[in-house]
Amino acid sequence: MSEILLEMKEISKSFPGVQALDRVSLKIKKGSVHALMGENGAGKSTLMKCLFGIYKIDSGEVLLENEHVNIKDTQEALSLGIAMVHQELQSIPERNIAENIFCGRYPMKKRAYLKMIDHKKMMEDTEKLLSEINLKLSPKTRLADLSVSQRQSIEIAKAISCRAKIVIMDEPTSSLSEHEVNALFDMIQRLKEKGTSIIYISHKIEEILKISDEVTIMRDGTYVGSWSSSELTTDMIIQKMVDRELTNRYPQRKSKPQGNILQVEDLSSTDPKSFQNISFELRKGEIFGIGGLVGAQRSELMEGIFGMRAISSGKIIYKDKVLKIKRPRDAISKGIALLSEDRRAMGIFGVLSIFDNVTVASLDHHLILKTILNKKSLNEVVHESIEKMSIKAPSSKSLIQNLSGGNQQKVIISRWLANGPDILILDEPTRGIDVGAKYEIYTIMEDLVSQGKSIIMISSEMSELIGMSDRIMVMCEGKNTGLIDAAVATQENIMTLATKYM
Amino acid sequence: MNIEKKRIIHFMSNNAITLLLILLVFYVGMTQAGFLSGPNFNNIMTNVVPRFIIALGVSSCLITKGTDLSAGRMVGLGGVIACTFLQRADYADRFFPGLQQYPLLAVLILVILATAFFGLLNGMVISILKVPPFLATLGMQTIVYGINLVYSGADPIGGLRKDYTSLATGELFSIGGFSFKYLFLIGIILGILFWFLYNKTRYGKYMYAIGGNENAAEVSGVNVTLSKIKIYTVAGIMYGIAGFLLAAKSGGASVNLGLSYELEAIAACTIGGVSTTGGVGKVSGILLGVLVFELLKTSMQFLKIDTSYQFIVQGAVIIIAVALDIRKYLAKK
Amino acid sequence: MNIEKKRIIHFMSNNAITLLLILLVFYVGMTQAGFLSGPNFNNIMTNVVPRFIIALGVSSCLITKGTDLSAGRMVGLGGVIACTFLQRADYADRFFPGLQQYPLLAVLILVILATAFFGLLNGMVISILKVPPFLATLGMQTIVYGINLVYSGADPIGGLRKDYTSLATGELFSIGGFSFKYLFLIGIILGILFWFLYNKTRYGKYMYAIGGNENAAEVSGVNVTLSKIKIYTVAGIMYGIAGFLLAAKSGGASVNLGLSYELEAIAACTIGGVSTTGGVGKVSGILLGVLVFELLKTSMQFLKIDTSYQFIVQGAVIIIAVALDIRKYLAKK
Amino acid sequence: TNAEPADEKKTVNVGVSIYKFDDNFMTLYRQEIEKYFKSLNTDEVTYNVTVQDGKNDMAEQTNQIDNFIAQDYDVLIINLVQSTSAATIIDKCEAAETPCIFINREPSEEDMKKYEGMISYVGADARQSGKMQGELVAELDNKGDLNGDGLLQYVMVVGDPENVDAKYRTQYSIEQYQEVSGNKVEKLDEQRGDWDQAKGQEIVANALTQYGDKIEAVFCNNDAMALGAAQAITAAGRTVGKDIYLVGVDALAEAVDLVSTDMMTGTVLNDHITQAHKAVDAAVSAVNGEKLSAYYWVDYVKVTPKNASQFK
Ligand SMILES: Nc1ncnc2c1ncn2[C@@H]1O[C@H](COP(=O)(O)OP(=O)(O)OP(=O)(O)O)[C@@H](O)[C@H]1O
Ligand SMILES: Nc1ncnc2c1ncn2[C@@H]1O[C@H](COP(=O)(O)OP(=O)(O)OP(=O)(O)O)[C@@H](O)[C@H]1O
Ligand SMILES: [Mg+2]
Ligand SMILES: [Mg+2]
Asked: For C158, which of D21, D210, D227 is closest by C-beta distance?
């Protein structure tokens, strides 16, 4: 048990303008779950990418089973028995589940003249794997037809099925719901028993304390220290991560919602499997939470309101008028904003700068003579955002694709705040965001509602839902299964409603 | 009733191109004598086969999100090399006057080696030097053309051996007016081979994976560099074969053989559902795409459409066909 | 010392193409008389301007992850239309015999209207019908060519008015051997205009956003459809202007004017750092790319490289230049 | 023929395939073929002419010819994309017993011996056009030698070398110049203009900056390139006839215009009208069952400032 499987010594790595890692060390015991924690941009993913051969280290050394290894590329990492679940989804949307899982190591037919793939074995193995992680899907489903969380589960399944010595999981649960998280934890338990080591990155401290054996904390690319998890408490972790006290996880909710701003009546999607007959109302100055399990069609509902999906029937009344929205820009021009759950596909402009990413939706408000962009006022907006959201980047000209995942999320939130919307729809707003930054986002949410704006928040994190919302609507299989006042909400009663039709 | 109607519409939009094709054949066949005849079928098929082979080669590049603009020029090089080695002994104006009569297969191999070499270069430039495929293969297009100019001195090469030209004209057997030519056999074999490659082997799966998400393929342990090199080399081989056959079919070759065939091949692939954004494409679709092109051309000639207008019609039909076909992928979310 | 070295390498790899260009000019200038002379500068610039204008048009399409293969044929159409309206009154073989002498600007507007129309069509087919840009513009290429054939009957159109040809030859002022021609002024104005469009307007920002992530742009409230239509229409306008100038410069036009200029323009854009995967590209880079092409061509002529070998050299230089240049964008591992 | 009309009237189907439609010269040529056929229509016989564009692609052209044969055309007039492919075409015609007239691009002598009496070539000897270009310069008072060094310093603008015309003109213009004038030559530059006016202008503009006054003559393989060259020459402040000479081939209207105003030294007329008529006549006699002779030759004509007015 105490045998050291992997040792990373004094690893340094720099990118143009950033020292991402500065002499970081890490020791992983065999058959243990080792958590890696730190704020957004602390260098966790970078350290793991160095281990997995995606980045080349500038200096330092890696010892695997006391042997010095020099991992040049991912193929080599895989062959050494290292597997990785990446922070950003790495799926091939046009191919099916089986092919995604076995990509890079297809089973081959043994007795055939030509080297043929053994499709039968691949399907069977996939099916077995899917049932192990509790996913009721056909191995032949295209990844493009899956939800983000299902895709995430497939990636976890893929990493696990490699039979690796070390499985790196970079925020595996950021887009999973309770149900799937539990399946994952069971899986991790079983892996541990088989002697596999797991490096687990997460911003969810409860999770870390629940499943990890040891914790290493990083800050600003440096090594802070390693502890056995039994010695740690939530507050200690936060203190070590952010280097200051954080007394409250949620800000004091002071705003008092009043009056109606949005009324959704009997809204149904054209797709019969999606949301049906949803009604709710949103008050001015309210944070309206929506809870439910994955596949509950919460995102679809919001996308329907935002004009991204076809609506078959129902009414949306906004500021006492019936709202006709055909496409997102109709909604935006009316003062509605949506932060999408799929950051990669619907959020970031990877090759563009932070500046462009923040301003793209609000250019209309910064025009001189209705044509020329007002660089000065735009710059102000951007710098204000970087400061207010404490976005960690060399400059506003840095490309967003070079930021850490959490910082990307902050940039996208800034985009919508810059637009000054009356209704802000946040789909998993704190996904991948560290505790410190989460608190900042919550504070901003509270600020907004106290200015009389309204927020709809979809979240799979129960405590966040309960901690931030005024009221919570719970959905299950496309239907509204109940509305709970936050004051009386508990994890249990949300869960009951969320699984009503299951 | 209503459901029935919906189903029909659904079926129609899913098979827009095939239906268009059938309609075209039906209309021209009814109005123009000779269109629905054995000889015309033979003509069309002789045209289709080399283009299908080129399209197969290009399709792999497209599926990996690449492209290959050097295809046409490689076809030209292949054809010219083949012709220089396969002239009749008694032909006065021979390129290599004293050359002995090599067997066809030996020359084919020589041709393939040449074009595979340039395909290999393409692959290495794209995957190792990371030059964008459009530019890499555009550069290669120019280079291969230059080499062909230097090699052939821009002389047209003719006087081919009978055994060589009969590859395209000779028939294996014939039923009624429909003759089954050697050329068809080659096309069918290569089509099946590619179907097998695309669906049953690692080569194919890697190709789709790279096109679908190169990064994901890389981190899954796919050797992206090697896969791409292989793909471009195989494409080169196909161009060589196509050039060899095309020259046999036209009874000679000059440096302009195959000029801009790549654009037609890419268009045919796209019509046949090979996505320009990578990761998608089937052999049957490619064949369909090539058929659309060739049937359209022949139909316009039979319909006696003025040549200048033929360009307009061809361009318009391509756009319309794809516009209709694309509907099936665009299901509103 | 070591840091100094690293800095130099960094600088070199960041400016590989510029350095290559300077080296070339320096070498040819030292060895060949007349290369570093006013008249040669004038020649090169007269060649650069129309190509730069075409490249500007194409660049917008590329930045949105599209492409425009119809560029060359639109240039041809623009040139031919311009020539048919700008023949000398005393020229015997006039296209429109009795036509009155229209002012240049009126004809330019007519030309622009024509090419803008096809650009608009391109944009609509791509953004509304969702036909992949490669195919849509390839179809349009064929259509525009067909229309030009029908319009001009493939006759070459010459006998141009002096005021028209002097657009390309006439000079505003001259210092030493360096004369500043009207043509240059037009190039500079359009270059600045595009720089302004790309950097200071919503049009430009939306273009980059669409190229960076079309879905995200749509969700961010960008009118993707309209933006694309505008972009392809503006591109059409540029081709019209380029055709107008090219015909003036060469003293006449026929249906083949501009043939395959689009490939050169796309290559020039890519050399200049316009990414084929969308979202990236600068006006200064585009100018650099066009300069590379034209300087290379002129240099090869001055160096007396055999024309067949010129193709090989040109292809190789393009590939090498981009291979060097791309180093700076490759994520450091 | 397959399609016998109900009345007495005979319909003759003529298939024409031109190597490439956007070739200036072949455009004039094919238009004349169509015009002339129309003039031959009578109450007894109608000529149904279908013209196809070979798109400069032999494979494409072969297909078109296959289609003509499949549709049982009575006679073919073919402007080959590749003259070396003639044998294949002749074999096809022989198999279908269709007479065939080749125009403009000459098949090899060996091929022309096949299928005797049913095939024929109508054309001008491409070498002659080159020779005449050489003569145009050689027959000037100073034999083109402006600087009097006994050498002709020249620039050659070549068409697409894939076309034999380009090669013959490049070669024979200079050979004939040397033979007629007795002068030697110095080649300053030889570049490919691919028959294109814009390229002609660019090449000559570059050559003029590189060699300046040294250039005495510019030879262009066709008039389109010569027109571009004329543009470059004017822009460089040179004057044709005074300090430089310029010749082309094709006698395009504008070139003839320039020749007549002394802005071009001369051009060579490829007489498409006579050629078209001879080709059509041959086709008609073949349909009527007459035996064809293998060759019908038509001469090129020199166009100089003296005789230019005749060609307008
Ligand atoms: N390819 C790159 N180019 C430039 N900078 C990079 C690159 N990748 C990461 N960085 C920088 O390195 C630092 C560490 O990033 P990393 O992704 O490792 O953070 P993280 O700890 O995983 O954060 P998060 O919790 O937000 O995922 C950040 O400042 C980031 O901007
Ligand atoms: N069982 C399923 N099979 C296939 N696709 C599904 C299934 N369930 C949901 N999807 C698809 O998944 C996508 C997202 O799922 P959904 O939006 O319902 O999840 P959610 O309730 O919003 O959860 P999240 O918290 O992850 O946003 C949609 O595109 C939907 O079509
Ligand atoms: Mg990370
Ligand atoms: Mg969702």
From this structure: D227
Which band of pLDDT confidence, cut at 50, 70 and 90, is reported for residue C332?
low
* pLDDT band at B64; cut points 50, 70, 90: very high
* A54 Cβ under 8 Å from any chain C Cβ: yes
- CA distance linking residue B182 with residue B170, whole number of Å: 6
Q: Report the alpha-carbon distance of residue D250 to residue D25 in Å, rounded.
A: 7
- Closest-CA distance, A328 to chain C, in angstroms, reads 5
Of B130, B133, B139, the CB nearest to C316: B139
pLDDT 10s digits, B171-191: 778 777 677 888 899 999 999
Regions of chain A short of the pLDDT cut 50: 1
Residue B190 placed within a domain: yes
Cα torsion A414, A416, A419, A423: sign:
negative
Please identify among residues 58-77 of chain D the ones whose CB lies closer than 8 Å to any CB of chain B. Answer: 58-64, 66-67, 69-72
Residue nearest to atom 27 of ligand 1 (CA): A405
Q: Give the pLDDT of residue C103.
A: 94
3-state secondary structure of C158: coil
Q: Which residues line ligand 2 (CB under 6 A)?
A: A 145-149, 175, 292, 294-300, 341, 427, 458, 460
Give per-residue pLDDT as tens, D222-257.
999 999 999 999 988 899 999 999 999 988 888 999
- D144 CA to centre of own chain: 25
- The DSSP code sequence of D126-180 is HHHHHHHHHHHHHTSTTTT-TT-SSEEEEEEEE--TTSHHHHHHHHHHHHHHHHH
pLDDT digits (tens, 9 = 90+) for A16-58: 778 899 999 999 999 999 999 998 889 999 999 999 999 999 9
Question: Is C50 domain-assigned?
Answer: yes
Q: Do C216 and A345 touch (CB under 8 A)?
A: yes
Does residue B4 register a pLDDT over 80? no
* A404 Cβ closer than 6 Å to some ligand 1 atom: yes
What DSSP line would sit under A162-188, residue for residue? T--SEEEEESTTTT--HHHHHHHHHHH
Q: Which of A14, A15, A242, A400 to mutate to test the pocket of ligand 1 (most atoms within 8 A of CB)?
A: A15
- Whether C46 is covered by a domain: the verdict is yes
The domain in which residue B279 lies consists of 18-332
Q: How confident is the model at residue B333 (pLDDT cuts 50, 70, 90)?
A: very low
Give per-residue pLDDT as tens, D154-173. Answer: 999 999 888 888 999 999 99
Residue C13 belongs to a domain: no
Count of domains observed in chain C: 1
CATH number of the domain within which B279 lies = 1.10.3470
- Phi, psi at C135, each rounded to 5°: -75, -40
